[in-house]
Xanthine dehydrogenase family protein subunit M
Amino acid sequence: MRAFGFTAARTLPEALRLAGPGSAFLAGGTTLVDLMKLDVLTPGQVIDINRLPLHGISRDALRIGALERMSDVARHPRVYPVIAEALALSASPQLRNMASIGGNLLQRTRCGYFRDVHTACNRRQPGSGCAALTGDNRTHAILGTSDACVATHPSDLAVALVALDASVRLVSRAGERLVRLAAFYRPPGDTPQVENDLRPGELITEVVVPRLPWARHSTYVKVRDRSSYEFALASAAVALDVRGGVIREARVAAGGVGAVPWRLPAVEATLRGKPPTRASFEAAAAPAADGARPLPGNAFKVTLLKRTIVRALMSLEARS
């Protein structure tokens, strides 16, 4: 790890004032510190924001402070099941006790080539190439990729929040703005090093989830190589509004398969107006991988994605 300056900010204005080129905010540190140890990230100044008043889960609407810890949010009674389950299936208990909500949404890809400074990675070093294209790509993305990058987005929580059409509140010295999370993340295109719409010196202060009472009928299913502390090969966040034996509304998003958390409007549209049966779920999952660009090592994800969606929907229906 390289030498760096360290400051603990006491107020939000102080934190924003301290932010500048080459600086990084520190919350739980579960991603930042790892990448600093690997020399993937080398900030000259680290700004500890843990003293800032960015906590709390509001009662009037689902607003989650960016410094809330993952484990606390997962246990909160106001949180929709799909969010709680996505958090509970993330990382390890020790990391969930440390990691913040804002940090989770900004975590960097787990692509091994990104984390190895001796290999080619356009996301880490633009123009150097993408070693995953011809290397080990079993865990990589099949949706939203480009010739410059095929890394998956690692956050389970982000998949659940994108399904619920959540937004993040961003604050900087220039003011604040509310951005839909689905628009916040950027597919790699020709600039994979630009992963999101976070501007220099900007900080996530809270997550805002729209009021959606029927999202109490929701779940998150994660398929992975082992049952704990492992990232998704495929995952599905689903919520259904079922009344009178018919699906009135649906929300579906996928993880482990996309360069960004992947909302599936075609699946949602196919579900609407149908009975909540296995046949309906299988028909709805059929277009889930449309537009996929599988690589030799991850072509199995096309089928796995569809099966994961059906499994999530069947699991949800079994709770009814």
